[in-house]
Amino acid sequence: MSNVYFRRLLSTSAGALLLTFGGTIVSASPAFAQQPDNTANNKQEAAPGSPTADQQKESAADRDLTKKIRRSLTEDKSLSMYAHNIKIITHDGEVTLKGPVKTEDERAAIEAKATSIAGSGKVQNQLTVK
Predict the structure, then answer these.
(1) Which of 4, 68, 105, 119 is most buried (CB neighbours < 10 A)?
(2) Domains of the chain
(3) Rama region for 71: left / alpha / beta (φ>0; ψ in -120 to 50; rest)
(4) Among 72, 103, 116, which Cα is nearest to 127's?
């Protein structure tokens, strides 16, 4: 298969993309792809009185604190993708961490990083081990 033909085949977006390899047909159709669904997690996290991401303050100080914590987590390549994608909700300097992580060690490491940035007693850890 030439490069040009292969690129055209990959660039088509009409329906399912079918590639033939040694007589075997492989389908990359969106109909067969698993769609992400966090509905159950989001409902569980929306417990009464529990902070939600839409309550993130728009003050410069809260945004900056959230940004520093997020950067600290994403720069740590030893953390899983789950850990890199947790919810960080900051409201008047108080930080709430939510979402699933892979291990208890990750949970503790994330809390330690957030506490070192936000300060002792300012972090509420609601992370769950998946």
Answers:
(1) 68
(2) 51-129 (3.30.1340)
(3) alpha
(4) 103
Residue 97 to residue 83: CA distance in whole angstroms? 10
Hey, which residues does 87 pair with through a beta bridge? 98
- Return the residue matching tokens 């990359």: 28
| Cα 118 to Cα 115: distance, rounded to the nearest angstrom | 5
Phi and psi torsions of 124, nearest 5°: -110, 115
CB 121 within 8 A of CB 83: no
| Per-residue tens of pLDDT for the chain, all 130 residues | 555 555 555 555 444 444 444 545 444 545 555 555 556 655 555 566 666 766 666 899 999 999 999 999 999 999 999 999 999 999 999 999 999 999 999 999 999 999 999 999 999 999 999 8
| pTM, full prediction | 0.63
- Both tokens assigned to 85: 């994608």
Place of tokens 């529990």: 50
For residue 33, report the phi and psi dihedrals to the nearest 5 degrees.
Answer: -75, 140
Of the candidates 93, 112, 100, the one whose C-alpha atom is nearest the C-alpha of residue 45 is: 100
